[in-house]
Write a structure and sequence with these properties.
The protein is an alpha+beta fold and 524 residues long. It has 17 helices and 14 strands. It has 3 domains: 203 residues, no CATH class; 121 residues, no CATH class; 111 residues, Immunoglobulins (Immunoglobulin-like), CATH 2.60.40.10. Keywords: 4Fe-4S, Electron transport, Iron, Iron-sulfur, Membrane, Metal-binding, Transmembrane, Transmembrane helix, Transport.
Length: 524
């Protein structure tokens, strides 16, 4: 080892960190939780997590305030779940209740997208974008700002209840509660006009369900993000238990490369002087100290690991101080790891000797496998992506080609028909015209078939006829009571029924309904 590197080894601080949540030391659920005080990490993955946190929180808190002009007959909130009107608005897209399959398809896409991401880069969702991860990161920012970094928080937690400790704890928990209130408040704004609801909420004029929802989400955000933290991921979340089915030997996961790190040594200089074999790991516990899950990645793959990669940042910082190559902890595939381990152990015939993976100059030999980004685009991932993309294209095509006008007809059940004084038969129908655009339409309602039949619409133009022009309100359902009458001498025409046609001449949209006409059985 180079003398300069040996000298630097002595300057690396060893952190007293213990992997309290590792499987080998974890106790049953009913044991009192041992607190984790993660140290703040610095590096490219930590910066990427900051970026994801800002983007996701920004989307969540700001989206209800984005305006989108849909005209005077529709709300101007860009994203709105209007339960009263039974509509879902998403910018230029409007979903009616009977079109809920689009929302279901989007949820299926999201689930399949999770499979796609996991098969390619492991639990990246858990480590970067999961709401639990994002809010825990946010709560940790507040905790570090008030109580200090890891060592200061540990001293404060172990110390007596002084005025300073009480003030800091009250301030921290008060801000956590405010974040919970903001989280619940942002959620209810997705279900009503945000500015109007905010005004009624602060003046205590909002519906009780709004206050109840905010209270529930405040409590869950505070408990999950502030108090339970890693316990939610370890005990409550089902994804760690099923994600293994999505992984294969070429999936990227956070890996401790023991083929170059072992044997560990806290005193590399003394070990080198005695001729001992020394790996790159100096057993500083930096990777354990920054882990928000309280595990030691050097124990191998674990259910608790969310692949946030903060241990990579911590280890890379130590390697930089020692003048050694980064990547002792890295994103790696099982196939690459196994090949390098076989190289360091002579095909598993001997103990790990990191000298087998290096040349005389200390550089890695050519046989050592390194990360190749092309491994992401393998057959399995491309197949997942193709299915996911086809689902998305199907939804887009369905949205683009769907009708924005529909006709619904329901025959009266009681009575099914009425015999009038002149012997003619009359049937009643409830007709609903669905105008799914924020513009008024003139719809022509016409009978086709049963040539002798006449139609009358209650509340519309007086008299009977076979065709009527109906004014339909924008973005609403217009309900009509329609009566169809067949003269006594032409009752045989009822056997064939008739077709009710609703047509919009301006947009050329048309919908049909094949209707039955009930009458008394003919006399024999």
């Amino acid at each position: 080892m180079h003398p300069r590197s040996l000298a630097k080894t002595q300057s690396v601080e060893r952190l007293e960190a213990e992997s309290v949540s590792a499987a080998r030391v974890r106790k049953p659920l009913y044991e009192k939780r041992r607190k984790i005080f993660p140290k703040r990490a610095e590096g490219r993955f930590r910066r990427f997590k900051w970026l994801i946190m800002l983007v996701t929180l920004g989307i969540y808190y700001l989206t209800p305030w984005i305006r989108w002009d849909r005209g005077s007959h529709a709300p101007d909130q860009a994203v709105l779940v209007d339960l009263a009107a039974r509509r879902f608005y998403f910018f230029f897209i409007e979903i009616w209740p009977q079109e809920f399959f689009f929302v279901a398809g989007l949820l299926v896409m999201a689930g399949f997208g999770l499979f796609l991401v996991t098969s390619a880069v492991g639990r990246a969702w858990c480590g970067y974008a999961c709401p639990q991860t994002v809010w825990v990161d946010l709560f940790l920012v507040i905790e570090r700002f008030i109580e200090g970094d890891r060592n200061a928080r540990m001293r404060l937690d172990a110390g007596p209840w002084t005025l300073d400790k009480i003030v800091k704890r009250l301030a921290k928990h008060a801000i956590w509660v405010l974040i919970g209130v903001a989280t619940g408040g942002a959620w209810i704004f997705y279900f009503a006009d945000a500015p109007s609801l905010l005004k009624s909420f602060v003046t205590f004029e909002a519906p009780p369900v709004a206050y109840f929802t905010v209270a529930i989400l405040t409590a869950t955000t505070y408990v999950f993000g502030g108090l339970m933290r890693e316990q939610v991921c370890t005990y409550m979340c089902p994804w760690p238990r099923i994600q293994a089915t999505m992984l294969d030997e070429n999936s990227l996961v956070v890996t401790y490369n023991d083929w170059r790190g072992e044997p560990r040594s806290r005193h590399a200089k003394k070990a080198a002087a005695t001729g001992e074999v020394v790996g790159d790991c100096v057993d500083c516990n930096a990777c354990v100290a920054v882990c928000p899950m309280g595990i030691d990645i050097r124990d191998g793959q674990q259910l608790e690991c969310i692949t946030c990669a903060l241990c990579i940042d911590a280890c890379d910082g130590v390697m930089d101080k020692l003048g050694r190559a980064r990547g002792l902890i890295s994103y790696a595939t099982l196939s690459d790891y196994a090949a390098n381990l076989a190289l360091a152990t002579s095909n598993r015939a001997a103990a790990i000797d990191p000298r087998r993976v290096r040349d005389a100059n200390g550089a890695f030999v050519d046989k050592v496998r390194h990360f190749d980004w092309r491994i992401i685009f393998r057959t399995r991932v491309l197949l997942y992506f193709a299915v996911w993309a086809l689902m998305g294209l199907g939804l887009v095509y369905g949205l683009a080609s769907r009708d924005r006008f529909a006709l619904n007809v329901l025959h009266d059940r009681n009575p099914q028909y009425v015999v009038e004084s002149d012997g003619s038969a009359r049937n009643g129908y409830m007709v609903k015209l669905l105008n799914m655009i924020p513009e008024q339409r003139t719809i022509t309602l016409t009978i086709e078939g049963m040539p002798s039949a006449r139609m009358r619409i209650a509340g519309q133009a007086p008299g009977d006829g076979r065709s009527f022009a109906i004014e339909v309100d924008p973005d609403k359902v217009t309900a009509l009571k329609v009566f169809v009458t067949l003269p006594k001498g032409n009752l045989a025409e009822a056997d064939a029924g008739f077709t009710l046609i609703a047509d919009d001449p301006s947009s050329h949209e048309q919908d049909l309904y094949q209707a039955n006409f009930n009458r008394a059985a003919p006399e024999r």
